[in-house]
Write a structure and sequence with these properties.
Elements lengths: L7 E5 L26 H14 L3 E5 L9 H10 L3 E6 L6 H9 L4 E6 L4 H8 L4 H14 L3 E8 L7 H11 L3 E6 L10 H4 L3 H17 L5 E5 L19 E4 L5 E2 L20 H7 L1 H5 L24 H8 L15 H12 L16 H11 L7 H12 L2
Parallel strand pairs: 1-2, 1-8, 2-3, 3-4, 4-5, 5-6, 6-7
Antiparallel strand pairs: 8-9
The chain binds iron/sulfur cluster (2 copies).
One iron/sulfur cluster binds next to loops.
Length: about 400
């Protein structure tokens, strides 16, 4: 296989985040502020990315606006000819905090929305007043002349509001809308049975997206990401392992995707001990599942193997214990019953939401145990769920 340079670099410059989304796909173990790469190292990574032929850099996290050197990093990306995208929750975005980023050459912002109703948005973000701050942030971005993508994160509680989300995006003057169902990696696995929509809900969202695409064709791009648990075949995760994207974690780990720190079959390379080009071209981790040579049956002889590249390695590991297994989402996988069992569990799932909190995160077994323990006292309305999270904060 001829190896092309990566298309995009996901720069996860911090795991710090003021929100507490229960669907967060960041790893269970977050990097502390003291473990983050310094400014000089990030500037060097940006130089290396441009030299490698990368075209886009996505500043992400956590909340990238939590870093005081963000404008410096954007300016370096602009100088290097990289197209910069800021992926933000927007709650820290004001005219004052945006101005230096615009001056640094930022062309595009991707703003995430948990919901379009105040109480529901508070509940799903674990942050009171988040929606109002995000709406204001969207207006500041468009007033500054930047391109804006609105990312609406879909789970069972907000499926019915997708048509209104699209209307809101139009009213805000966005260039692109993402209707993205939660993907079940990292922390979101803790809340899977509470967030997965039913088949009927999924079909209704799909119909709403198709209707809006037809109504606004040529004026608005709507990207749609389904929960792959309902698909017959897996998605081409990251467009194939080590084929298009490269991810640098807050601590400098260089990964084929942001969940790949769970893979233990090869050492995880770090930018402090090897260059981006060496890691992309030669590291054991990037070559582990690149192409099709690693595949066993049924993938090895499957006609779809260069369409989905065998699906998601991290999902295979999380659900089967074997990162080299066929993605269990696939209807041809012997592990597909695990997905069907998860869907059946979700159909009756009403556990408490367990919030993602930066700092002092409990272990997975602890949060599962606590989720069960608090179930009896849970208020069933959205504000009750938020109250539950706030009570946890006081512990
Ligand atoms: S808590 Fe929410 S806003 Fe923060 S990183 Fe996770 S998903 Fe993003
Ligand atoms: S068998 Fe493998 S390559 Fe074929 S569709 Fe399933 S995951 Fe994809």
């Amino acid at each position: 296989m001829t190896l092309s340079p990566p298309l995009g670099l996901l720069a996860e410059i911090t795991h710090r985040c003021p929100l507490q989304c229960p669907y967060c796909s960041n790893p269970l173990e977050l990097v502390a502020r003291s473990g983050e790469l310094p400014t000089e190292t990030w500037l060097d990574i940006i130089d290396q990315a441009a030299a490698l032929g990368i075209l886009q850099i996505h500043f992400s996290g956590g909340e990238p606006m939590a870093r005081s050197d963000l404008a410096q990093l954007i300016a370096r990306a602009d100088q290097c000819g990289l197209y910069a995208n800021l992926i933000t929750s927007g709650v820290q975005l004001t005219p004052e905090t945006l101005a230096p980023l615009v001056a640094a050459g930022l062309p595009h912002v991707q703003l995430s929305f948990q919901d379009i109703e105040t109480a529901a948005a508070d509940t799903m973000s674990g942050y009171r007043g988040s929606l109002e701050k995000k709406l204001a942030a969207a207006r500041h971005v468009t007033a500054a002349g930047l391109s804006l993508t609105a990312n609406f994160v879909i789970q069972r509680e907000n499926c019915a509001r997708v048509p209104e989300m699209i209307q809101l995006g139009l009213a805000l003057g966005v260039h692109r809308i993402e209707i993205a169902h939660v993907q079940y990696h990292g922390w979101s696995m803790v809340n899977r049975s509470r967030l997965l929509p039913s088949r009927e809900q999924l079909d209704a969202v799909t119909a709403a997206v198709e209707q809006a695409r037809a109504a606004h064709a040529g004026r608005l791009v709507i990207d749609y990401v389904i929960p792959d648990y309902y698909a017959d075949y897996p998605k081409a995760c990251m467009a194939g392992w080590g084929r298009r994207f490269i991810n640098v974690s807050p601590a400098g780990n260089v990964l084929p995707c942001h969940a790949a720190e769970t893979i233990t079959a090869a050492p995880i390379p770090n930018i402090t001990t090897a260059s981006l080009a060496e890691i992309w071209n030669e590291s054991a981790l990037f070559n582990l599942y690149r192409g099709t040579g690693w595949m066993a049956e049924p993938c090895r002889s499957c006609e779809r193997r260069e369409l989905d590249w065998g699906g998601c390695r991290c999902q295979a590991l999380a659900l089967t214990g074997d990162a080299a297994a066929t993605d269990p989402v696939c209807s041809r996988s012997v592990d597909r019953p695990k997905i069907d069992a998860a869907l059946a569990e979700a159909a009756s799932g009403d556990a408490d939401l367990v919030y993602r909190r930066y700092g002092g995160a409990p272990s997975l077994s602890a949060v599962i145990a606590r989720s069960g323990a608090t179930k009896q006292s849970r208020a069933r309305d959205g504000s009750g769920l938020l109250r539950s999270a706030r009570n946890d904060d006081k512990k």
